[in-house]
Amino acid sequence: MTSLHPRAGRRCHNAVNPLHSTVYFSPDFTAEMARIGVEDPRAAYFAGRGAAMGAVGPGAVAAAFYNFNHELIAKHLPAVWDTASPEAVLAARLRAVDTTLRRLLGDDAVASAEMAEAAALALRAAEACTRHARPLYAAHADLPVPAEPHLAYWHAATLLREHRGDGHLAALLVADLDPLEALVSHTATGKGMAPRWILATRGWGRTDWEAAQSRLRERGLIDADGELTEAGTALRAELEEHTDRLDRAPYEHLGAEGVERLTELGRGFLTTAALAGAFPEDLTGKG
C-alpha cells in the first residue's frame, strides 16, 4: 500500500487518457485507415479500437464499448475485416499515432527526456493492471510495446485507459444504468459528451435519448429539465468512486511520487495537444 490520495489515480487518468483518445479525432487516423481501404469513419473507429481483440463481430464490440447501438456496429462489423485484417488495422493505427503526436506536440517534445520519462512511468503503472473481466485492456496488453518513447507512452496510456474503462463498465452495471442512461446521466454532469455528438456517433436517435431521460426521471435521477437531482448527483459520484476502487492497483503500484510526476507530465502534453486543436471545441457539455 502507498500514501496515495483516494482520487490521485483519477486525476492521473484524466491527464493521461485524453492524449490516448486524440488519435480517434485525428485526420491522420482517417487517412491511414482509408489507405488500407476503410473509408467509413465509423467502421474505422470500431475496427481501430477493437482490432486488438481480433476479427470480432458486433456483439463483442457492443459489449466492450458499452454505449454504442448494436445495430450501428453491425452495419460495419464483421464486414470491415474483409477489407482490412486486424493486424493491418493495428499497424495503421500506430502510424496514425506517430503522425498525430508529432503534429500536436512537435518533434522536440516527442524526442524529449520528459516523453521517455512519462512512458517509463506509465508502463510501470500498467504492470499492476489485471486481465480478468477486462476484455479491452487484456487484448491490448497482449500487444508488443513500441520501441519509440512517444509510441510507448501512447500504448501505456491505452492500457491504463482501457483498464479503467473496463472497470467503469462493471460500475455501470452495478448502478443499473444501461448504455444510453449512462450517456444521458454523464452528459447531465456537464462533463460528458454533448448530446449532438452522442446522437451523431453512437447510433441512437432522439426518441431513444428521450426514452432514456424518461427512465432516469422515473428513478428520480434527473428532473424535468434533464438536470441531475440530488440522488442523480450522488449516483454519478459513487460511480466514479467505485471505478476508482477498481482501478487503484496501477497507481498504488507506481506510488504517490510516481503518480504525481506522471500526472504533471501528462497534463503538460495534454495542454499542448489541446492548444494545437486535438479535440473539437463542442465535444463536451449539455448542449
What features would you describe in this structure?
The chain has one domain (8-275). α1 (8-25) packs parallel to α17 and α12 (179-188) packs across α14 (206-218). The longest helix has 26 residues, at 149-174. Helices cover 69% and strands 0% of the residues. The protein starts with 7 loop residues before the first helix and ends in a 12-residue tail after the last helix. It is mainly alpha-helical. The chain contains 17 helices and no strands. InterPro entries: HTH_67. This is SalK.
List the helices and strands and how they pair.
Layout: H1 8-25, H2 27-35, H3 41-50, H4 58-65, H5 70-74, H6 80-83, H7 86-105, H8 107-110, H9 113-126, H10 135-141, H11 149-174, H12 179-188, H13 195-201, H14 206-218, H15 230-246, H16 248-254, H17 256-275
Helix pairs in contact: 1-11, 1-17, 2-7, 9-11, 9-16, 9-17, 10-11, 11-15, 12-14
